[in-house]
Amino acid sequence: MRAAAGRAAGTVAHRILLPLFLLAGLCEPDPDLLLDYCVADTSSAAASLHLNGLPCIDPAAARAEHFATAALSRATSPSATAFGFNVTLTSPAASLPGANAQGLAMARVDLAPGGMAPPHTHPRASEVALVLAAGSGVLVGFADTSYRLYTQLLRAGEAFVFPKGMVHFLYNMDVSEPAVVLSGLNSQSPGAQLVPLSTFRTEPPMPEEILKKAFKINGQDVHRIQRNLGG
């Protein structure tokens, strides 16, 4: 009877584990490219397709300019935004078709004097930020899942890594000079979720009772913060 029970247990375990192994195989990262590159096809016909990425043009039609961009060379006006920052992100669809399916993106962050990129996350990417220009320096930092904070004051030419999914920020310490940061991200579509907007500027609005209890504030505080954020 023990042998029969053992065989039965083994059969049950096999039935449970086999689907799990198959599911794990389906959840692996995207496979490597089967071509040298996949220059994005940005035609209107290709835009009607819904893919995890963009379709490729014929590799024989690839040109050097598909792998180059000047999108990050132009300064923007961060002072016009609520937090005093502006981001220019490369995109295979708009500015860098040769980066399609390569698993990377670049971003230029313009920080006004005293401006900041407020606490935010990139759910699909790690980030390395290189300060190109700064007066008094750029204060950067992130918090891990143990709520430990790591901060560093960066000067021009210095860099800092933000691990994937961690809440992080960049703050221009100079109140008279702008700062410029160049970031590299290991995802074609890193995504960005700003913590202040994710809590106080959602559509439809987050229930007021949730905000009051989560932040230990009253209804007037909620409305004041929403107004300050443009809501």
Automatic annotation (TrEMBL):
List the InterPro entries hit by this protein, alphabetically: Cupin_1 (IPR006045), Germin (IPR001929), Germin_Mn-BS (IPR019780), RmlC-like_jellyroll (IPR014710), RmlC_Cupin_sf (IPR011051)
Where does the record say this protein resides? Answer: Secreted, Extracellular space, Apoplast
Q: Which GO terms describe its molecular function?
A: manganese ion binding
Keywords, comma-separated and alphabetical: Apoplast, Disulfide bond, Manganese, Metal-binding, Secreted, Signal
Can you tell me which residues the record assigns to a coiled coil?
A: none
**Gene Ontology cellular-component annotations:** apoplast; plasmodesma
- Please list the disulfide bridges: C38-C56
The Cupin type-1 domain is annotated at 73-223
Main subcellular localization, coarse class?
A: secreted
Q: Its Gene Ontology biological processes?
A: plasmodesmata-mediated intercellular transport; regulation of root development
Keyword Secreted on entry: yes
Q: Which amino acids does the record list as binding Mn(2+)?
A: H120, H122, E127, H168
Domain of life, per lineage: Eukaryota
SUPFAM superfamilies xref list: RmlC-like cupins (SSF51182)
Identify the PANTHER family for this entry.
Answer: GERMIN-LIKE PROTEIN SUBFAMILY 3 MEMBER 3
Give the family, as the similarity comment puts it: Belongs to the germin family.
What function does this protein fulfil? Answer: May play a role in plant defense. Probably has no oxalate oxidase activity even if the active site is conserved.
User: What's the subunit arrangement here?
Assistant: Oligomer (believed to be a pentamer but probably hexamer).
User: What's the protein called, per UniProt?
Assistant: Germin-like protein
